[in-house]
Structure formats: C-alpha cells, structure tokens
Amino acid sequence: MAFATTAIHAGQEPDSATGAVAVPIYLTSTYAPEGLGRNKGFEYARTSNPTRLALERNLAALEGAKFGYAFASGMAAIDATLRLVKSGEHVVVSDNTYGGTFRLFKRILSNYGVEFDFVDTSDVHNVEAAIKRNTRMVFVETPTNPVMIVTDLKAVSDVAHAAGARIVCDNTFMSPYLQRPLEFGVDIVVHSTTKFLNGHSDGVGGAVVLNHEEDANWIAFVQNSAGAILSPFDSWLVLRGTKTLALRMEQHDKAGRAVAAFLEDHPKVGKIYYPGSPSHPQHELARRQQKGFGSMVSFDVGSLAAARAMLEAVKLCTLAESLGGVETLICHPATMTHASVAPEVRERLGITEGLVRISVGIEDTDDIISDLDQALNAVTSGE
Ligand code: PLP
Predict the structure, then answer these.
(1) Is the peptide bond before 143 cis (omega within 30 degrees of 0)?
(2) Cross-sheet strand order for the sheet of 135-141
(3) Is 242 near ligand 1, meaning CB less than 6 Å away?
(4) Nearest residue to 300 (alpha-carbon basis) of 341, 280, 271, 325
(5) Residues annotated catalytic, as ranges
(6) pLDDT at position 348, please?
(7) Most buried among 5, 93, 250, 365, by the most CB within 10 A?
(8) Is any ligand 1 atom within 6 A of the Cβ of residue 204?
(9) Where in the chain is the domain with CATH 3.90.1150.10?
(10) Pocket perturbation via mutation, ligand 1, pick of 93, 145, 351 by most ligand atoms within 8 A of CB
C-alpha cells in the first residue's frame, strides 16, 4: 500500500469492542484478566496500552519496520536506544546533533562508562577513522539541526556494519514521508514525534522503530522497565497527526523550497542552509536519499543584534523552539535549541550568533514570505 494509505490505516482496525473507527483513548492503568493467567493481551498500562500499541504499529509501518515503541519524548526514545550499548563500549555520533542529544550523551551517559566520539558524519571517512575495537553504535542525524549537514546513510551503514556496529538515525527532520533510513541499511530509526509526526505542536513524544527482533525485545524491555512511555492521550494525538502526514509534508516541502529561494535572494541574508538549494554542498546526496527537502531552513543574518531585531519583528511567524508544526516557528539556535552546546563547538559547527532557524509551516506561503520580508527589513545596516 502507498504511504498515505498506510498512514491512515496501519495499526487502526475499527475497535473490536465497539466498532469505533477512530482508535479510542484507553484511559486505564490496568486490565482485568478473564481468569488467572488468561488476559486479553494487556495486563498493566506501562507494559502495553491499546492506543499506544496502535500508534506503535502505525509508526513501524510508516518506516517500513517490523517493530515500533512509543516514548514520553524524543529524548526518552534516544535514551532507551542507547541502552543497547554497555559500559566500556563506544559510540560514534554526528557532531551536529540536536543539542539535547549531545547533552544526554556527553553529560549523562558518559558518566556510565559509555565512550562517545563526535565527528562530521557527512564525510564517511571520518566515521571510518573514528571506529574503534569497541564501537557498537553509530548515531547519525540527517539533515542535522540546525546547519542541515547531510549524511550518506548507505555509506555510513556499510562502515558501521563492517565494524559490527549498529547504525541509528534520528529521522525527526524528514519524517518517514521524506526519508526512510531503513531502506539504506540503517538498523534503528528514532523520532521526536513532537515534531512533524504529531505536526500540531500540542504534544511531546518519541519513537524507536527497528527490524532486528533481539534489539526490539530489549527496547521493549527497557520501555517497560524504565517506564518512559507515551500516554494514551498523547499516543492518540500522534495517531491523528500521522493521518495527514503525507499531505502536510507535501505542503511543508513546497513552502520550505519557496522560503529558501526567497531568503537566498534577500540582501539582508548571508549564508543559507537548506539541502534543497543547489548551492548546498550535499544537494545531490539529499536528492538521492530524500523524497523532498522539507521545511527546515537556517540562515545567517550576520550578528546577534541583527538576529534579535529580526526575531522581535516577526508577526505571523512565532518565536519559539521546536519545529514541524502546522504553524511557522522561528528561533535563534545559539541561545535557544543549542544553548547547551559549548560556544567553541557552536562556532566550529557554524551555529553563529547571527544564525536563525525557521520551521516553515503550512499557512499561506505568500503570507509567510511577507512576514519574513518585513522582519528582515527591520534589521538596520548597523546591526
Ligand atoms: N531529535 C531532534 C532532531 C530534535 O530536534 C529534538 C527536539 O527538538 C529531539 C530529538 C528531542 O525530542 P523531544 O523534544 O521530543 O524530547
């Protein structure tokens, strides 16, 4: 079945008890068995819940995977995935991940004997060079947040597998509509469902999807043991979101391209970061690996003062962290999403004080562009 059909139907048979077409929100913490040792597939809601299960099946189907697990946030999903790695083992990570991923790895998990090396995974040779005898995982984000570096998933998967390591891809920026990492050899896909999958900026969540049965059993065990589960209500919100994912992503992609083209020609804008732009160094790879370019665009306005002037002048676009909602969100990575990354690392990655990131929404594209134009024109030449 095609993606849009899968999105609407996978995991969502009419409810067996009532025939309800929309999966109900099962607000229960426990389930009565028919007798001792005879339950109906559900015992306790941390372990399993029908609404969450429907979402987990839906997300697995969208990524072309056998197994899916929903977590309380994208970070909880990433944390659970890292439980596949043990003390004394080594992980190679894209050096420009979401700041929260960097913080979890560097400030928390490295206290438990897991070693991390952060490299520019856009060059597969860097991954090859970072592999050590004890490397058990390669963790990539592509395109990266916020400077849109693209990693060749097939090439890096081959290197990881040759070393006997798993490869994990954070597919939050693309969603399975625009990129399906498992098709390139990736073993595990993680998502912040908070973003495009939910799509309406009204819930925080995360997911892990994969094919390998033994690893899937371990993720399920961690989900139940550590308990960072997605609630039934939030599961329902994401399920509702995925029904329109195909339509939304088509429009996000169209609007993203239009906004990037506008910014590229604007005199107040310096460098722009958008894989859809022919000037992006990995434009060809992005064309090959992605079905579209999405709606995340970053651009440099030259200084903190200019970024502040612009961000305080927007009217339709909302100044806020996060991305992937129907509304256009705009933010300042250096002081917002990536504030936890050390200034010298930010500088090296290109996360300058003048960098602005936009998550282009699905409002009328001309309205979005007019708002950006008036906000950029509010930047005076001295700023
Ligand atoms: N991965 C990426 C690429 C993100 O942008 C984010 C959050 O912004 C996360 C993971 C973390 O997700 P959450 O905020 O749902 O924990």
Answers:
(1) yes
(2) 67-71, 206-210, 188-192, 166-170, 135-141, 90-94, 115-119
(3) no
(4) 271
(5) 46, 98, 170, 195
(6) 87
(7) 93
(8) yes
(9) 246-377
(10) 145
Residue 73 beta carbon below 6 angstroms from any ligand 1 atom:
yes
> Where do the CATH 3.40.640.10 domains begin and end in the chain?
3-243
Euclidean distance between CA atoms 267 and 41, whole angstroms: 61
**pLDDT one-digit tens code per residue, 276-310:** 999 999 999 999 999 999 999 999 999 999 999 99
Quote the pLDDT of residue 338. 85
Ligand 1: centre distance to CA 44 (Å): 28
Contact 169, 186 (CB under 8 A): yes
- Nearest CA to 63 out of 173, 217, 196, 191 is that of 191
For residue 322, the ligand 1 atom closest to its alpha carbon is: 8
Question: Residue 98: CB within 6 Å of ligand 1?
Answer: yes
With a 6 A CB cut-off, is 97 part of the ligand 1 pocket?
no
Amino acid (1-letter code) at residue 203: G
Q: Does domain 246-377 have CATH number 3.90.1150.10?
A: yes
Q: Show the DSSP H helices in 230-282 as ranges.
A: 232-243, 245-264
- Report the length, in residues, of the chain: 383
**Of all helices (H) and strands (E), which one includes residue 189?**
strand 188-192
At 96, list the tokens. Answer: 């420009």
Q: Going by CATH, does the domain composed of 3-243 fall within 3.40.47.10?
A: no
DSSP code, position 230 = P
Q: Residues with Cβ < 8 Å from 119, sequence gap 6 or more?
A: 92, 93, 94, 95, 126, 127, 129, 130
Q: Is the CB of 121 under 6 A from ligand 1?
A: no
**CA-nearest residue, atom 12 of ligand 1:** 74
139 CA distance to ligand 1 middle (Å): 14
Q: Which pTM value belongs to this model?
A: 0.96
